Structures are given as C-alpha cells and as structure tokens.
Amino acid sequence: MQYPEVIQNLIDDFTSLPGIGGKTAERLVFYLIKNGGQEELQQFGKNLMNLKTTIKTCRECGNYSLNELCDTCRNIKRDKKSICVVANAEDIKYLDNTHSFNGVYHVLGGLLNPSEGVTPDKLRIKQLLARLRKDKTNEIILGLNPTIEGESTIIYLKKKLKEDFPEIKITRLSRGLPMGGDLEYADEITLASAINNRIEI
C-alpha cells in the first residue's frame, strides 16, 4: 500500500532524523494527523523555521544562542578561568545539569575522525587556542566522549595545549564513564562524579 504523497514525504522527513526509523516516523505522522489541530501544526512548523532564522552560534564558545554571546558566556558568576571543552553544543546541557562545574565551555563542533574527513582544521581548535591567548585560563577540562574518536581528540589536544600553554592545567573526565559511551546517555550522578574526580593528564 502506498501512502498519499504528502504523508510519505513527511515520513521520509522524520526518518532522515537520527534515531528515528520508519515505524516511529509513521506513528509520529499519524499522531499529527489525528491529534494535531491547525494552530498547533502551524506553531510546530514555525518553531522548525525559527531554528534557522533565530538560532546563532556564540562567538566566544560556539554554543547555540539567540544572541552574539550565549547565556553561559554572559554570566558574570561563571569562572572564566576554567574551560570545559566539549564535542557538541548539546553536551553542555548534560554537563551543566550536574551543577558540578561553574566554569565556561568551548564547543569543538565534533571529534577527530580522519576516515570521515574530520581533521583538526575542521574543528574549532584554532578558536580555542586564540581564546587561551586572549584570556587568563588556569584549567582546561577535556569533557569528551570516551570513544575512539574522543580519545584521539584528547591525545591531539593534550599535545597541542602542552606545547603552546605549558602553564595551564589539563584534565579529563574520570573513568566512571563507560568506554564507547556518550555523555548524552550518562546519568547526572555519573557525570557529576566524572567532573569532580577529573584526572590531570
């Protein structure tokens, strides 16, 4: 059986998103058909459009923001001398929800993966180095996923940072996180422990 084109197109749109298979996409589409009012669907579409028209990248850390500087970078209560380096902007939320870190963040925009074409020049490493030259920093925390790509990125950053900024303390999240896991799937207690028991490297 073939669905009407407009239904199939929306199913295809949902399945193009990470973590959503065909069955889940169908359930979402038919839920919207059965339960979505005109006003709700219009607001849903408007919110999707606003992702591209209103969301900016913080010029300091690379986080998503409505302004030139994100809320974290504008917060005067944050310790600007401590920077936690993360792979993606969404990782900030997972770490911040632990309430165990009061510094600021730097988003790399991914992890090193040469086989996929992700080399150092494709990440926001130059911006990190420029930031360290500009601001007085006491500690860099490498808050990266304990995956092969994460470990490769940690090794590269450690070497680069030790060469250019030998006076800065470099730490990483403790080994409480399972190898191959993502910060996204770790509970707040585990993440808090990983931050509080971070290891100098």
UniProtKB/TrEMBL annotation:
It holds the Pfam family RecR_HhH. A zinc finger (C4-type) spans 58-73. GO terms for biological process: DNA recombination; DNA repair. One of its GO terms (molecular function) is DNA binding. Keywords: DNA damage, DNA recombination, DNA repair, Metal-binding, Zinc, Zinc-finger. The keyword Transmembrane helix does not apply. Residues 81-178 form the Toprim domain. InterPro entries: DNA_Rcmb_RecR, Rcmb_RecR, TOPRIM_dom, TOPRIM_RecR. May play a role in DNA repair. It seems to be involved in an RecBC-independent recombinational process of DNA repair. It may act with RecF and RecO. Belongs to the RecR family. This is Recombination protein RecR. It comes from Candidatus Kuenenbacteria bacterium CG2_30_39_24. The gene is recR.
